[in-house]
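Q: Structure tokens for this one, please.
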Amino acid sequence: MDIPATLLKRPGRLLIVEDSATQAELLEGLLLQHGYQVQVARNGREGLEKTRELLPELVLSDIMMPEMTGFELCNAIKSDKRLKRIPVILLTSLDDPKDLIRGLECRADNFITKPYREQDLLLRIETILAGGEPSAGGEQGVITYAGRQYRIDADRQQIITLLLSTYETAVQKNNELLSIQSQLGDLNEQLEERVAQRTESLQQEVQERKRAEETLSEVTRRLQLATASAHLGIWDWDIDRDGMIWDDKMYELYGIPPGTQLSGIESWEQRLHPDDLPMVQAALEAALHGEGEYAIEHRVLPIGGPLRHIKANGIVIRDETGRAVRMTGLNQDISAQKNLEEQLRQAQKMEAIGQFAGGIAHDFNNILTAILGFSSLLQMKIPEHDPLRFNVDQVVVAAERAAGLTQSLLAFSRKQVLNLRPVSLNEVIKKVDKFVGRIIGEDIKLQFIFKEEDIVVNADSGQIEQVLLNLATNARDAMPQGGVFSIVTETVQIDQEYIDFYGFGALGYFARIAVSDSGIGMDAEIRKRIFDPFFTTKEVGKGTGLGLSIVYGIVQQHKGFINVYSEPGRGTTFSIYLPLGKAEQAVRAEQAETQIPVGGTETILLAEDDALVRDLSRTVLTDFGYTVLEATNGEEAVRVFLEHRDQVRLLLFDIVMPKKNGKEAYEEIRRAAGNVKVIFLSGYPAEVIGSTGLLEQGANLIMKPVHPQNLLRRIREELDRPAPAGQQAGE
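A: Here is the predicted structure, written as tokens:
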């Protein structure tokens, strides 16, 4: 449709009210192209504000909009004395006659039905702008439609204009419909001919497609079962578009919600462990350049989940020029396998440590027995005021520390025999006061806070000392700039509520040792691994990763518990819980240790294959009045006893000896002479002693190295113990 020349080139200010940004932009561009000044409002309320502000010459408004419809906007404009002369054209895709009536109700000047032709829209606009001002008032009338009456406030010209605009739209649609119907008629005839030709072939294709779909469905089902059982995730990468497609398993492996839009390869790389990223990128580049297959193992950090180990494989798809255009492949979760491998490595390390500790324990303990024994003899014979006494005292202390170190290694491998007895916990801690001070240095303040009442625990005092020294070393390394190190003792009752809350413990009363530092602290990930063997956060060469593992092993062997509380930057507290003992037993034990050793005149048969230990034991015993018979192996011990059975009152046997071990020699003697009293000595770990059955039988056992005073006390106690009724004297 051509626009009359008399209507063209008339400038005008127009306001478009349209909530669709696309429709508004298209309409604005059209009107600007034809010389109009145009403003745009995004909804009816904004349109009313701009109408009041700009006073446009014409308003074009959509009908269905948020906040205020086009009908409501038009009614507001026509009800405003200042605005009612502004023409309003309603743009709508509605075609119900009720819409026309509503347009009359709100006194709209014209309707244009979407979709419209640009020429028709421009002609309507120019016609209204050229037609002068709208009537100031209108006549009221009543229209009845579909059984309902509508009161119309519009003049006859406005009604005619709206009806004409609606009529023109209807005619236009009718002409288009007739044209389409004619074309459809022709096409229908052609279609019927082609349908007849294709029906037969389509039926065949449908059957073939159905069979193919059934086959594909079965293959897909089997593939899904296989990938699910193998924990396989399938991925595809469009290299040109950098588009990633994952199956649900891939999303699960990387901790991303299924269906999340992936931003190409970057989405994948963000989840890789930072330490593994360069290696993975290098493997990917090599595969893309044809320098090798993409087959690699790496770690991923899923969102909100634990670290996973992934085995990744992929193939590169190339175009006819050899350029890489696509990659597809699999990811397999091998975390369980890696965890098992790590556990196996740890077990092998533990076994190696255990074998090493057990291997050196016997020889080392024999050497320490001699050092500790002879130095103790000197200590007893040199007066305290003698200048040499200090030197001897230091040798004794060093030997005792070395003995504790050996026992700690065995504790780590769970192979030592503990010397459990009631001890004063406060006294044990006071004993290591000086050693702790030397370890932590002058920059760290040392605090001891003891419970007023003495706390007695059933423990190996040497091992508890080792626990405290290891924790002091750990605290020192956590406070390179200085700080506070404290040891606090108290008694606590562990009930079921406590166990449920903290997740560890046993019912009863326990001594608690709280060892704290004000150092750098630990995060949750480090806390989980703090007691793992060989785990350390220190620099290479500055830590073995065994210190806290030894602590854990010692506490476990004492039937105790250990817990750690720490936060980054807020220090660390290790809480050790040990079963309580009886105070009176601890007093008796301490009194026995401080008493001057008592000798005797009895005859003792000493069987020891190590000459150094044998010489020491003979010297100690003879110095305190005993008569000593010696043997270097089990067979000799039996022979010597049978020769002197009337004189021997006690057997002092090493357990592991040539020809016959200590238990075998004792059993043979017992068969010949009854239950002779016996004390066994050993420097071997628990597993060696346990193989003889002595531990199960509760034999009278002393572990090497042994202090001469303790040896003499145990011998005297055994000799003075009354023999059970019915047994021979000297049993």
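A few notes: The chain has four domains: 5-174, 230-333, 418-586, 595-720. Residues 156-229 form the longest helix (74 residues).
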